[in-house]
Design brief:
Belongs to the class-I pyridoxal-phosphate-dependent aminotransferase family. The structure is a single chain. The chain is an alpha/beta fold. The protein folds into 2 domains: about 140 residues, Alpha-Beta Complex (Aspartate Aminotransferase, domain 1), CATH 3.90.1150; about 230 residues, Type I PLP-dependent aspartate aminotransferase-like (Major domain) (Aspartate Aminotransferase, domain 2, 3-Layer(aba) Sandwich). The protein contains 14 helices and 12 strands. The strands form 3 sheets. Strands 2-8-7-6-5-3-4 form a 7-stranded mixed beta sheet, sandwiched between helices. Helix 7 links the parallel strand 3 and strand 4. Helix 6 packs parallel to helix 7. The chain is globular, with a radius of gyration of 21 Å. It starts with a helix and ends in a 5-residue tail after the last helix. The structure holds pyridoxal-5'-phosphate. Pyridoxal-5'-phosphate binds next to helix 6. The site of pyridoxal-5'-phosphate has 13 residues, from helix 6.
């Protein structure tokens, strides 16, 4: 007998993938340039030239049996040293290789943290709008995901609802800032309020409530917006990082979990991260790309292209009368749908081959996600369609 849960998860594509596949089929019929696909978060900005140079340099000058060989489960020592140095230089921290565990991207980093923490009856809390994969990663460990309703005013944390959700079974809270899908960056005020509450509740319930900070978009921020470095505010934090977006390497599967020394019972906690990586069968993160990201740890792809896209799209939509919280980073816009049922609105947009994702899957109905990591030309060509939709719904200014 097969696992019913796995059959269900494996048979259902995510809504994002469904829409993306629809776009590919339509492109074959009407042509790529007639499809305005804003469904998927695949970076369109190329990896910096230094990534290619690092790959060539490693392949030409390093021992290939080492480059393509297994590394230690937690990652190559020198790689982790370089990455720790880069983090320390940028955030004024004091980490060493012993604080890092290399992973196959943020998805693995998050699943490893859930697995390492999860015990019977545990609950994990996240805040809408949230990355939908959290649910299957948490449920795979036997734990429960609790979603706190969004604060649609500004997409900071809805503390009133959060206080109703936190309880003695809460093992950890997972945050994602800059956020997919809202693009919002949590302010220092939000982080201070959150961490104060977690400290109080940990004391009240007599056990640590951990904070998992999912940060694949940390470097993609606009107008000098600061993304607070969470370990400075809360000792019991795991930082889940990935180079998928910052270096435009999503297919190469490379990232890390950072475990600070200050976390409760550091030795056992780091061991639990290693144990979780082991039982999930990750063995080690890709050896070649561990070396590549170590050489490029201080760099990013050209973020200014995303900022240009954001300005064009955000200003264009606001001008037409759409309502949207201005993003501080990532490459998503999350405006209100023009009718209460975001799925129906997305279906109407689809008639013009404008492909948007309803907010329902992100735990935030009544909104749509627009992923603008696309050619700027696509945005220019799509704006008249957004306008036409606004006119159909009679909202034009
Ligand atoms: N977390 C968030 C919020 C994401 O948006 C994504 C990918 O889109 C991931 C995690 C997974 O990233 P990775 O490709 O590094 O596994």
């Amino acid at each position: 007998m097969l696992s019913k849960d796995m059959i269900e998860i494996g048979s259902k594509r995510s809504t994002i993938r469904e829409i993306f596949e629809f776009g590919k089929r339509r492109a074959e019929i009407v042509g790529r340039d007639k499809i305005y696909d804003f469904s998927i978060g695949n970076p369109n900005v190329p990896a910096p030239e230094s990534v290619k140079e690092a790959i060539l340099d490693i392949l030409e000058n390093e021992d290939s049996t080492v480059v393509h060989g297994y590394t230690s489960a937690q990652g190559d020592d020198k790689v982790r040293e370089s990455i720790a140095d880069s983090i320390n230089k940028r955030f004024g921290t004091n980490y060493t290789k012993n604080n890092l565990y290399m992973t196959i991207g943020a998805a693995a980093s998050i699943s490893i943290c859930f697995k390492a923490l999860s015990c019977k009856d545990d609950e994990f809390i996240t805040f809408a709008p949230f990355f939908p994969e959290y649910r299957c990663f948490v449920e795979a460990t036997g734990a429960k995901l609790i979603v706190v309703e969004a604060n649609i005013e500004n997409f900071q944390i809805n503390f009133k609802e959060f206080e109703k959700s936190i309880n003695k079974n809460t093992k950890a809270v997972i945050i994602n800032s800059p956020n997919n899908p809202s693009g919002v960056v949590y302010s220092e005020e939000t982080i201070l309020k959150l961490t104060k509450l977690l400290k109080e509740k940990s004391k009240e319930y007599g056990h640590t409530i951990y904070l998992i900070s999912d940060e694949p978009y940390r470097e993609i921020v606009y107008k000098g917006v600061e993304v607070p470095y969470i370990t400075k505010y809360y000792d019991n934090t795991f930082v889940c990082y990935s180079y998928s977006k910052s270096l435009s390497l999503p297919g190469e599967r490379i990232g890390y979990v950072l475990v600070p020394n200050e976390i409760e019972n550091f030795q056992d906690t780091y061991a639990a991260i290693c144990g979780a990586g082991r039982v999930l069968g990750y063995v080690n993160a890709p050896s070649l790309f561990q070396r590549v990201v170590a050489k490029c740890a201080d760099q990013t792809s050209d973020v200014s292209i995303y900022e240009r896209n954001k300005e064009l799209l955000y200003n264009g939509l606001i001008e037409m009368g759409y309502k949207c919280v201005e993003p501080g980073g990532a490459f998503y816009l999350f405006p209100q749908s023009l009718e209460a049922d975001a799925k129906a609105f997305c279906e109407r947009a689809k008639k013009y081959d404008l492909l948007l994702v309803p907010g329902d899957d992100f735990g935030c109905p009544g909104h749509v996600r627009i992923s603008y990591c696309v050619q700027t030309e696509q945005i220019v060509n799509a704006l008249p369609i957004f306008k036409k939709l606004a006119e159909e719904y009679n909202i034009t200014k």
